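FAQ
Q: What does a multi-component entry look like?
A: The components come first, one per line:
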Amino acid sequence: MPSHAPRIGFIGLGIMGKPMARNLLAAGYELTVHSRSHGPVEELAGEGAAVAASPAAVASVSDVVITMLPDSPDVEQVVLGDDGLASGGGEGLLHVDMSSIDPTATRRIAAALAERGIAMLDAPVSGGERGAIDATLSIMVGGPEVEFRRAEPIFQHLGKTIVHVGEAGAGQVTKACNQLVVGANIEAVAEALALARQSGVDQVAVRQVLLGGFAASRVLEAHGMRMIEGQFQPGFRVRLHAKDARIVQSLAAETGAVTPAFNVVADQLDQLVRTGRGDLDHSALYTLVSQEAAAS
Amino acid sequence: MPSHAPRIGFIGLGIMGKPMARNLLAAGYELTVHSRSHGPVEELAGEGAAVAASPAAVASVSDVVITMLPDSPDVEQVVLGDDGLASGGGEGLLHVDMSSIDPTATRRIAAALAERGIAMLDAPVSGGERGAIDATLSIMVGGPEVEFRRAEPIFQHLGKTIVHVGEAGAGQVTKACNQLVVGANIEAVAEALALARQSGVDQVAVRQVLLGGFAASRVLEAHGMRMIEGQFQPGFRVRLHAKDARIVQSLAAETGAVTPAFNVVADQLDQLVRTGRGDLDHSALYTLVSQEAAAS
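Then the predicted structure of the entire assembly, as tokens:
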């Protein structure tokens, strides 16, 4: 790592954040971490990370601060709240939010940071825990080109497909599109595998042969196998996908877009949450269309 | 080709059938063809195929007869109608129906053929015209294991993924599952790309970055590009996918399966047919959710 490499702060060491922070540490970056949960903080401290007591403290010793948090209010609190990174960081700081949140919140935060001379990129990811661990995430980046160029060497230690998709919020719009497609693809595979089973046809064979044609997808490969095995431990929680579905639907409402098939998927996700299945993996959409699962 | 190789008949030389028949000819099989349209018949005759005047005549000089036809009534007519292959073929003939038709019709035809000592496999495919030309189709085969073994060397000249999925009709059930997934995946990509455009985000960048994560699919790759380019020449016609959607829905009704998201897709396909877009490629689902396309 060259001596002019940026000092990185990392806030939010959950399922995704922890392996991402670890990859940056392994790449040789000087890293300062902060998270609500003590376990991951101590783990990374043991691997060489510095620890800071607040987002402001992280910002005061960093050139770039990455956040990886559950939802829009979490990001707003960590950035703009008491002891938030905005109060600790000065002119020239870059905030890279890799959480998946509402693009409207992103634009609001970016504007508030700009008033303080702090630049922001929205850079949500797809690829799940596996992608975070293996540094093969897909990273969809919104914000100024010059800041994208500044962050790109960092992204290269986290992901494989890194695309600058547009201005502030464009990364989050792209992530909403991603969650629309992933959710609808999971529902499609669930409906197809349930139909196969109801028709007395072997699901393993169906998955295998469909993977050879136009039905092939990463969802059929990964989530289809989960459905066949009845293995719904997360992975990516229904509750979080339901949150993303609300982002898709409010974005559609704001922009006049229509999403008739995805609206059904959003309803199915809400139904899982209402019936106590919000902490299962989102491939549990299968349990709503599968008769054997419904009966159990 | 060994001298004991089966003599093959091929009925139905459309977009899919013609390149498939050509691949069998190129593999060295003795091939007799029949089709309603003269052009493809003459083309294949020029490449060494024999020509027969009726399905019965094809059957009388073949050990295995392949059919590749648009819909259930076409297959019933060609097999069981006047001068149908059942009337020309005797004990020991194998009929391989590679059309995509209703599994109920398949079981009815298989039973009628069995009474005459003629075996049948249902072996619909996925992979489109490109897959037919390149012999990379995915082939989903229903019927007796012994007949599958007999046909397998032939399938290897037509496809890449060849799976025996179950008894008579199981191939068609699998194809219905395939069309469910493909249709829903196309609708999902259409809704996502329309949402991106309405939100002012570049569709090319969205497609590229989504291909790197869990949203990746053959549909996003192939049909997503068609939507971005506004190129809806078939390919696979809306009209045929709407036919397949009816097969999915009657299979679901018969077996008690539920397909809530796909039902929306089936409605969208019907709406395209009703509004004069039945002969476009099925990626034209995009035109129902895209405002620029709707306005034009």
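Q: Is there any commentary attached?
A: Sometimes. For this entry: Chain B touches chain A through 76 residues (CB under 8 Å).
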